[in-house]
Amino acid sequence: MLILSLLFGNSDLMLNIMIPLLEVKNLAIQFVTLDGIVQAVNGISYQVYPGETLGIVGESGSGKSMSVLSILRLIPSPPGKITQGEIWFQGKNLLQLNAQQLQKIRGRDIAMIFQDPMTSLNPVLTIGKQLTEALQLHLKFTSEQAQNRAIQLLQQVGIPSPERRLKNYPHEFSGGMRQRVMIAMALGCQPQLLIADEPTTALDVTVQAQVVELVKQLRNQQGMSVIWITHDLALLAGLADRILVMYAGQIVEQATVHQLYKTPRHPYTIGLLKSLPRLDQIRQESLSTIEGTPPNLIDYPPGCPFAPRCQFAIEHCFQENPPLEQIEPNHKVACWVLPRAT
Ligand SMILES: Nc1ncnc2c1ncn2[C@@H]1O[C@H](COP(=O)(O)OP(=O)(O)OP(=O)(O)O)[C@@H](O)[C@H]1O
Ligand code: SF4
Ligand SMILES: [Mg+2]
Known about the structure:
Blueprint: H1 2-8, H2 11-17, E1 22-33, E2 36-48, E3 53-57, H3 64-69, E4 80-89, E5 92-93, H4 99-105, E6 110-114, H5 127-139, H6 143-156, H7 162-165, H8 175-187, E7 193-197, H9 205-222, E8 225-230, H10 233-236, E9 242-247, E10 250-256, H11 257-262, H12 267-274, E11 325-328, E12 331-333
Parallel strand pairs: 3-8, 3-9, 6-7, 7-8
Antiparallel strand pairs: 1-2, 1-4, 4-5, 9-10, 10-12, 11-12
Bound molecules: adenosine-5'-triphosphate, iron/sulfur cluster and magnesium ion (MG).
């Protein structure tokens, strides 16, 4: 990404000529529950380009996790189901691969890290065993090669005395250290795409900053693409190239980091940004919050899902859901009114 920026000096031109590493087209996911059908993800489309970091932000239940878990077909099914869409990765529609074909991609080409490392680490196996197994399986390393690489990986993610630590079990590491081990496991096979689903939410602020820094550094070294999911729009400022804002299972705004922070155009994004503390507005007395709650995804409203909470809503907003449309290069918004932040 950086090299192309330097070559072309223009990120709009750059994205237009690049072939996406991942392309999600019109993806929809439903959950069948006793209360009815939950429309968790509602026809979203987006791309991830080589070497870029795409941030996905939105409040709890907006469909962030489901939209990325579907990439590796990790949606709990039943009750979940992908009801429409395509997910293209290196010329293959991942939704059409069989289990064996998908297994080859999981962990090798696409790796994931989650909020709770214990969901991915096996508590009864040493860290060394878990790290080396993946390397032997995906890269056909001998046990000695895998051992050496595992030591190197732990070193790379800043775990002291890696040789000794390989013999430890997950519970013998602190939360921040376990997250580092997870990152080491995810990066072991040098994936082309790293998906990080709120990996720092459970960590304290200092450790959170260290983990973000570590992923940035490794991303720059390995040139991989990253999808980073978070509730925290501020965290993405120094990490992402582009951001998707999700609301009620839809993408409501998609822009470069610069565009999103400078000229947000969806009322929900404007609200999210107003609720962030800013160093240049010291005198601001209280931060604003977005009043109200997201819609019930079982009884999906006919119009814009944000309408009941939106101060800019007009009558038409309650009747028809606005499509996500391009308003300038690299900037798409789903809104009939397109207000400007004041
Ligand atoms: N097992 C399930 N059964 C029923 N509905 C589910 C299930 N898992 C998810 N959903 C529905 O899918 C929607 C999207 O869930 P998802 O986990 O993607 O949200 P999220 O944006 O990642 O939220 P969070 O920030 O809390 O992690 C939820 O609002 C919920 O209604
Ligand atoms: S379409 Fe209407 S209700 Fe929805 S965000 Fe835009 S102004 Fe608000
Ligand atoms: Mg989630």
